Amino acid sequence: xxxxxKPILSVHKLVKRFGGFVALDGLSFHAAPGExxxxxxxxxxxxTTAINVISGLYAPDGGEVAFxxxxxxxxxxxxxxxxxxxxxxxxxxxxxxxxxxxNVRVALAxxxxxxxxxxxxxxxxxxxxxxxxxxxxxxxxxxxxxxxDLVRALATRPRLLLLDELAxxxxxxxxxxxxxxxxxxxxxxxxxxxxxxxxxxxxxxxDRVIVLNAGRExxxxxxxxxxxxxxxxxxxxxxxxxx
Length: 243
Ligand SMILES: Nc1ncnc2c1ncn2[C@@H]1O[C@H](COP(=O)(O)OP(=O)(O)OP(=O)(O)O)[C@@H](O)[C@H]1O
Hints:
The protein is of the alpha/beta class. Helix content is 33%, strand content 24%. The protein has a six-stranded mixed β-sheet, sandwiched between helices. A hairpin with a 2-residue loop joins strand 9 (208-213) and strand 10. Helix 3 (100-110) packs parallel to helix 5 (142-154). It starts with 8 loop residues before the first strand and ends in a 7-residue tail after the last helix. 42% of the residues are buried. The structure holds adenosine-5'-triphosphate (ATP).
């Protein structure tokens, strides 16, 4: 982020507990408009929990989340959608009995207040769902369900988009294609946070990564630099590769 770019999202000393277990233990980071930021780390390091707190699914137990200069910690998801934050899920949850088109129509009606809504057919076309537009969501394969989940989020016109393992299960050609789409969205000014295990994909699309371990950031910077950090190697690759 250049010094004159104000972050659209600031996370400061965020804490989330589940009973006695501390899933986020003072996590801090920021994201700028137009930036693709990767959240990476081993299983259970708190990546999805961070997305769940930022998107309003969980209230934080401590710390601050600020979006566009306003504190949003504990604000419900549906209100955050209106303010311009939306997300996808590891396991998409469309309205299964509604058609693809109907699912997107609901999201269009529900979206961020302000700005012209995107054209439904153009969105379906762009994300390769036009041929299944009138089929129930339940009929879609897993890659198509992921695209519907993404389109549903995009239909609400987010300024901050949180992608939770969108790439998992996509084939190499689909990965290249969706990587280009994500980069184009960011080039249009959207801030995008990507949780992903596929490091090639992360390297290709992100400007920066935050590496998490046990609910804390242990590295912030380029992925190429992260993979040379002994602490990152230790936690991320299981220790046996550490110098
Ligand atoms: N609702 C919940 N109730 C209890 N524990 C939870 C809950 N959600 C997450 N956790 C725990 O918090 C920790 C962090 O989970 P989280 O899903 O955020 O990790 P992650 O980094 O996204 O992992 P993965 O890469 O496997 O998706 C894990 O130990 C998980 O079991």
